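User: I'm putting together notes for a lab meeting next week and I want to include a structural view of one of the chains we've been expressing. I don't have a solved structure, so I'd like a prediction I can at least talk through. The sequence is below, exactly as it appears in our construct file.
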Amino acid sequence: MREAVRAIPFGAWERAIAIRYLLTKRSHGGVALISVISFAAIALAVGALVITMSVMNGFRSELSAKILGFNGHAYVVGGAMSAQDREAMVRRIRAVPGVVQAIPLIESQALVQGPAAAAGAVVRGIDPADLRATPIISRNIKAGSAKGFGLGEDGGDVVLVGQKLAENLGLNVGDPIGVISPTGGATAFGTLPPSKSYTIGGLFSVGMSEYDQTFIYMPLTQAQLLFGRDQAVDFIEVKLDDPDKAPGLKAALAAAAGPGSVVTDWTERNRAYFGALNVERNVMRLIFMFIVALAALNIISGLVMLVKNKGRDIAILRTMGASRGSILRIFFMSGATIGLLGTLSGLIFGLVFCLNIEAIQRFIEWVTGVQIFNADVYFLSHVPAKVDWMEVAGVSVWALAAAFLFTLLPAWRASRLDPVEALRYE
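Assistant: Thanks for the context. Below is the predicted structure for the 426-residue chain, given as structure tokens.
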């Protein structure tokens, strides 16, 4: 009996036959249709996974940048908050390696009034120099300016108002805004909350509606007068060169702040929020990985039909000396090619979509006339997308692994086909 010819694994003739089987004749249209469906399903699943994970990454990155840019990375409360010892404490905190800013702040809720309405707001009292050194505010003034902020012996009466808050109150640059403090003083007529009228010097918009419709920045001395803080502040806001260092620097910051001080960081204040984002991100990744695997399962159906239709060809190849390994590799390459092309197409589709997501959003809104991404609901003014190339590589590996794995079973069955049985009924 003639010994089977040993073929070079994945040789030219094996590749040629595999490609020929993919390009089936019209009489085998069912196989071709299933192959097209398998290709489209994998491409759409991979594209959806890339888009979903990129949007989730974009949300986390944008929200983290807004939250950590607008707020501090660590907070010092207690200790020397009076004017006499505060400056020395701030200098010691600024000397801690990794600290970029240490800002004394007053932060309190207040009722604000305009000609059209009244609303609750959060007033931040800040030194003018510290405000200018806070880029998320100083670089995002959309109307007016901060030139008059803090001028005068008592800090003046110029304030900066969130653009969305000003719109809700019917106010603009140069208009007066009434601020009523919740802390009142005793008078002959009972306890009355102090109030004062300020002039809007500028409107800021940081791109996050939660802040743009809530916050007002006021000179520190004016906030001390309005809220009855005398010369004290509420806390010291600390910003670092790397926010992730905050938990590790708490001990050094507490030592610099002195006895009686308490240090907290952004991971403690926003633990539930960022924890929910991470859980949602991981669950969405798991769901779409299952969808990719289900899409790859279609390859089995196509290959099973292909093996059935090509039984006579398999028998002839076997009698001509083709080994079982060659038959396995031929059908494996047929299925793997579908998975490879589907994965590549899905990656290209997903990446192009993510890199042009803002233009796509504007186009859809222009065509439909509907705002599909409401900033009041989603906090951000646009759909963010951040491509993580390591994650894209992981998606590619998963999709290819699923396609290759589901290709092995029908390819193995083709290699085990008995030539005599295959030709008996031909």
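A couple of points you could mention at the meeting. The radius of gyration is 33 Å. Confidence is low (pLDDT under 50) at residues 1-5.

User: Perfect, that's what I needed.
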